[in-house]
Amino acid sequence: MNQRPITIMIIDDHVVIRSGLRMLIEHDQRMQVVAQAGNRIEALERAAGTRPDVIILDLVLGEEDGLSFLPELCQASPNSRVLVLTEQLLKAIMKVHEGEVWIERSMMGSMIQELNKPTQVDPEVTKIKSLTDREREVIALVGEGLKNKQVGERLFISETTVTHHLSSVFDKLDVSDRLELIIYAFRHGLAKIPK
Question: Which CATH topology does 125-187 take?
Answer without folding.
Answer: Arc Repressor Mutant, subunit A (1.10.10)
